[in-house]
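User: quick one
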Amino acid sequence: MAERARRVVAVLGRGVVPAEAPLLRADDLGALRGDGVFETMHVRAGAPWLVEAHLARMARSAARLELPLPAAAALARLAAQACAAWPADVEGALRLVCTRGPETGGPPTTYALVSAVADAVRAARRAGLAVATASLGVAAAARGDAPWLLGGVKSLSYATNMATLRWAAGRGVDDVLWVSADGYALEGPTSTLVWADGGALCTVPAADTGVLPGCTARYLLDHAAGAGFAAAERMVRPAALAAADGVWLASSVRGLAEVRALDGAALPASRHTAALRDLLGFPAP
Ligand SMILES: Cc1ncc(COP(=O)(O)O)c(C=O)c1O
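Assistant: Done. Structure below.
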């Protein structure tokens, strides 16, 4: 089978099933309402990377949704089971999904899906990204006072995120940097903003802004000393990024993609990209 078409699916309580096997009921609230949580992990050497950090975030997301989540050990086993059926020498993308289950009651639907890394993701690692800013329509601090906006929660309701990326594609750019109504850079629809400012490797403070606390950016900042950086969490306006020593979008499967143009203005290639990619353990593209 062509690698890009390959899928591995494992279902909690059933194990690995054929990729075409039906597993969601028509009245599953994950499908009806986008009511559920998920995590995406990089699969390397036949195992999910940073699985503990992802499971911890999944538990926090589920708690915010008052969603009963299977035990972390069971989720870790499910993830490992799916990854073990994926060829160990091929990198992959693991999505671990837990819905609220049938509307009429019943257990959550929990499954793991491993698929190939998209060509566009590989291309972005190599060539970087042209990015446009787009308003998220809320002030940076607003989501702290409005927990129903689910700031910091990785829920299954990603229609807005996907619509933002389609909007970007329609404008001929690769990705988006969401900006708050009061003008601060927040995050991408599927990525965390990271930038270098002199000796500091920076990201946006998740607790103050409601952005998703990215596992990749967290790992990068926790290991920043290995590339000669101090770690910092700061608010930044997009215009200030033009003076940075590097701007990246970070996420689990892409690792790092360098922002090479922001709102049509070219950003110079950063001399730090290779060292940061090495910190994340991704091979040279
Ligand atoms: C909205 C959003 N922000 C940030 C990220 C990056 O998070 P991570 O590094 O944990 O993949 C993601 C990942 O998909 C995301 O969806």
